[in-house]
Design a protein that fits this description.
Blueprint: E1 19-24, E2 37-52, H1 60-68, E3 71-83, H2 89-107, E4 114-121, H3 128-139, H4 146-154, E5 164-172, E6 175-184, E7 197-202, H5 208-221, E8 226-227, E9 237-242, H6 253-276, E10 284-292, H7 295-307, H8 309-316, H9 322-330, E11 342-345, E12 348-352, E13 355-356, H10 361-370, E14 373-379, E15 385-392, H11 396-404
Parallel strand pairs: 3-4, 7-9, 8-15, 10-14
Antiparallel strand pairs: 1-2, 2-3, 2-9, 5-6, 6-7, 10-15, 11-12, 11-14, 12-13
Length: about 400
């Protein structure tokens, strides 16, 4: 399997105060130029929260982190890619614990202050000796500069072509605060959660309950609105560490709302980047569904459109095939009046009053070809709820990558 790497598209954001990161190649991946172990270290205890896959078949690191979060006193996150440590039974759980213990010993932090993330091939045991050696190597490279950030983000990747990075800032109590996020995800991406790993860091002080609630809310509106192939993975995890290094007291009231807005902005950027880097993708697809009775109904319709192979291949072929889009909405399981449904593609009206309207197919096709992002807008005119959903087109390269992934 050959992965063509592409440059990072967004500016490299600064780390929040009190955090250092790095990544290195430890031999888990065949390509010696691709990092496969990464560390995140806080110089002081941090509150932690986590959101995880809803798949009943979940990986050992998910079980390990889920049992520890939300909580306080966390100092580090140890990450490996190339091996998911999923479907590995009791040994997998022991290996996650051993990975955390190795990081704690190397970094000189308490044994119960480390969380772990793993991603890669399912059903193989962790090569613990390689991981331990990698942790020792990475620990000596920890830093806060752009190079350290990029190597850490690359240490999370599998079939991604580039790291996903996001940053935002906000003021609380007159004190400036920073928020940083990095994520991986390119395939096996399906909502609840989107198949991915994510790490969010902030120098704000948060109560664990607030951190958990706000991370859950942000995930629901961002990472749970991404789909590349509709396949919910075994390892999906997003972790949030808040270490309070900015010096302000725990956020409350309006300050907490300011943090929530910054968190949502960062997660939205990462979610969009995941969809845009879908395996083999040539187009990012943004589905905007409005006029629904509830947000859940809007999500069902958006996901039906986003996951449809016929819609995805039509976008890949620059075909403004309105019939595929409206029929996907129709089988989503949401009752609505087709005569009130309105569809626009890249701003051009294609369907209303239960039938297509006259439009210039060549012009719409050209608009798809000319831009990386294709916008699908559906309005049901049935209520106040709406949703934004991201996906990608379906290409022959996606098939090749996944046919060759294990072998």
């Amino acid at each position: 399997m050959s992965i063509t790497e592409t440059p990072i598209r967004l500016p490299i954001p600064p780390l929040p105060r009190g955090f250092r990161v790095a990544g290195a190649h430890a031999g888990l991946k065949r390509n010696p130029t691709r990092e496969d172990v990464a560390l995140v270290l806080s110089d002081r205890p941090a509150a932690a929260a986590g959101v995880y896959t809803t798949n009943l078949v979940f990986a050992a690191p998910v079980a390990f982190d889920r049992a520890r979060t939300p909580g306080t006193g966390f100092r580090a996150i140890a990450v490996n890619s190339g091996n998911a440590n999923a479907c590995t039974g009791a040994r997998g759980l022991a290996d996650s614990a051993a990975m955390a213990a190795a990081a704690a010993a190397t970094l000189g932090v308490p044994g119960d202050s480390v969380l772990v993330l793993s991603t890669g091939i399912i059903g193989e045991f962790l090569p613990l000796e390689k991981i331990k050696a990698g942790i020792a190597l990475v620990a000596g490279r920890l830093g806060g500069d752009a190079d350290a950030v990029v190597t850490a983000a690359r240490g999370m990747l599998t079939t991604d072509t580039r790291p996903k990075l996001a940053g935002s800032s906000f003021s609380a109590g007159g004190t400036p605060h920073t928020l940083f996020g990095m994520a991986k995800g390119a395939a096996m991406v399906g909502p609840r959660m989107a198949t991915m790993l994510g790490v969010i860091l902030t120098d704000a002080a948060l109560a664990p309950a607030d951190a958990q609630r706000l991370l859950g809310e942000a995930t629901e509106r961002t990472f749970n609105c991404v789909s590349v192939d509709g396949h919910t993975s075994t390892n999906d995890t997003v972790l949030l560490l808040a270490n309070g290094a900015a010096g302000a007291p725990p956020l409350a009231g309006g300050d907490l709302e300011a943090f929530a807005a910054a968190l949502h902005a960062a997660c939205e950027t990462l979610a969009r980047e995941i969809a845009d880097d879908g395996e083999g993708a040539t187009h990012l697809i943004r589905v905007e569904v409005s006029g629904c009775r509830t947000r859940d109904e809007a999500r069902l319709i958006a996901r039906a459109v986003a996951d449809s192979p016929l819609v995805k291949t039509a976008i890949h072929g620059a075909d403004p095939n309105w019939g595929r889009i409206v029929s996907a909405a129709g089988y989503a399981g949401v009752p609505f009046d087709p005569d009130r449904l309105v569809l626009r593609l890249n701003g051009t009206l294609l369907f209303e009053h239960g039938q297509p309207v006259a439009f210039d197919a060549g012009k719409v096709s050209a608009s798809i070809k000319a831009a990386r992002e294709t916008l699908v807008e559906l309005d049901l005119h049935a209520g106040p709820a709406s949703i934004r959903f991201h996906s990608s087109d379906l290409t022959a390269e996606y098939v090749h990558l996944n046919a060759d992934y294990h072998t």
